[in-house]
Structures are given as structure tokens and as C-alpha cells.
Amino acid sequence: MPSHRAFILFALALLIPLSLSASVMDSVSDDFNDNALDGSKWYTVLPRVASKVLEQNQRIELTARGYLVSQIQPKPSAANPLTVTGEYVFNNVDPNSFDFLDITTRTSATPAGGSNEVTNGISFTFWGTGNLVIIDRAANAQLGPAVGGFPVVAGQPYSFTVQDDGLNVSIAVQEVGGPVLATTAGASSYNAASNHVLFYNREFFNDTGYLDNVVIQTVPEPTAASLLAIAAGGGLLRRRRKVNSSS
Q1: Quick one: how far is CA 59 from the chain centroid?
Q2: pTM value > 0.85
Q3: Cβ atoms 79, 167 nearer than 8 A
Q4: Are residues 92 and 72 in the same domain?
Q5: How confident is the model at residue 202 (pLDDT cuts 50, 70, 90)?
Q6: pLDDT attached to residue 10
Q7: What number of H helices and E strands is found in the chain?
Q8: Do 106 and 183 fall into the same domain?
Q9: 65, 73, 74, 95: which one has the fewest Cβ atoms less than 10 Å from its Cβ?
Q10: Alpha helices in the chain (DSSP H)
Q11: How far apart are CA 75 and CA 244, in angstroms?
Q12: Under a CB-based contact definition with an 8 Å cutoff, are residues 144 and 122 in contact?
């Protein structure tokens, strides 16, 4: 017969996942290694004749504001903060190229105007000139300070981390495996009707940048039910130990 301790641990293992199910985690992860865009995870918008979004060479190749858009719509909040991570390679860092990577949260992924910028959402822009800026697209307002001056090398992969809790937003950039080069943060309570996550580049000469190893996830804060389950399990184990020690 199994011991009471084993039974309690088994019951707790069943109880905690059930309690956590009240906060479903929205997530998508893609290393783009199969060289075929996964339609269950992504769709594309091509606002220009030259725009391209291609999954090939085990990465996403972005050209001329081609939009890569998440199928999931994770709504960031204090209870379910959103984190977006990935890697990007610039092929042109000449200041005259005006190249950047744009990562936008809380967006419908709708382009407009001659520049085909996204019309709404919170845009985290990583420039090939070594600058970071966050913009509320709906209000056309910069959030927090623009930072810059760090070196960006063509062909070098850089990793980025975007965080959005529905109010507080930030982006950090570093060489893959290296220290953080720069970070900036701001705040916006913009409430979006759509909550896609969008990636696009701006390559003035229609050069191509490489996006890879993208993870989009909301990590729910512990719910009252999950904390109660953990506390109850711990209480049962302590009670069992007390009974055993007194017998």
C-alpha cells in the first residue's frame, strides 16, 4: 500500500495544475528551423511590392517592412505580463540605411501611410545605428527616454527582451551571450482592441534582416487557487509529520 505521504504528494500534483488552469498561458515559440512558416503560429502582411517575409535558411528573413504577425493575441496585464524575446541580425548598419527592427505589442498589425508603419500598438524599435526607442503608435508619442550610442555590427546576432504588463513597458538589447548593451522603459495604458505581436524591419535599400528564436509568452502571476493548493498540500504534509512524530 502506498504511504500517506506518497498519496498526499500525488493528490497535490493533480491539484496544483488544476488550480493553475484558471490562468491560461498564451505562448508561442519558434526557432524557424523547418524552413516553412507555421500558419498556426504566424501570418504575414506585405504592404509593399518589395516586402517579403520568408522562413528559409533556418530563420525568418524580413525585407522592406514585411510584417510577421502572431496568431495569438496575448493581452498584457499586471496579472499576465507579456515577454517577447528573440534574436536579430542587421545586414546594413550604415546610418544612411535607416534600418531598424520594430517589435510591436497590443496591435492590430495594420500598416498605413507612405512609410507603412503600423497604426496602433506599443512599438519597441531597435535601430541599426545603436538606438532604442519605445513609441505609442496610436498617440504618436514617445514613451520614456530614447537611448543609444552602443555599437551595432552587421552580421552579429543581437538578442532582445521586450516586456509589457499593460502599463509598464521596456526593451533590452545585448549581443547573444554577452552583457546588456542598452535598455529603455516607459509607460502606456493604451487599451488595444487587438493584441497581436508584430515584427517588421525598415531597410531603406530593401536589404534583408534575420529574425530567429522567437518566444512570446505571458506568465500568469500565481492565482489564489494555486496558492491555496500549495498551502493546503504543505499543511497536509506538516500534519502528517506531526502525527508520525507523536506516535
Answers
A1: 17
A2: no
A3: no
A4: yes
A5: confident
A6: 45
A7: 2, 18
A8: yes
A9: 95
A10: 4-20, 224-246
A11: 48
A12: no
Q: What pLDDT shows up at residue 180?
A: 95
Nearest to 208 by CA among 99, 61, 83: 61
- Which cell numbers in the block locate residue 218? 505571458
Q: Check whether residue 171 and residue 66 sit in a common domain.
A: yes
Residue 184 domain boundaries: 25-220
The CA–CA distances, whole Å, from 246 to 8, 9, 130, 238, 242 equal: 19, 21, 67, 12, 6
Task: Give the CA radius of gyration of the chain.
Answer: 22
- Parallel, antiparallel, or unpaired: how do β-strands 117-118 and 42-45 relate? unpaired
H-helix or E-strand spanning residue 77 = none
The predicted-structure confidence for 28-59, as pLDDT tens digits, reads as follows 999 999 999 999 999 999 999 999 999 999 99
Angle at 175 between CA 64 and CA 85, to 5 degrees: 65
Q: What is the number of structural domains in the chain? A: 2
Going by pLDDT thresholds of 50, 70 and 90, the confidence category of residue 95 is confident
Do 146 and 90 fall into the same domain?
yes
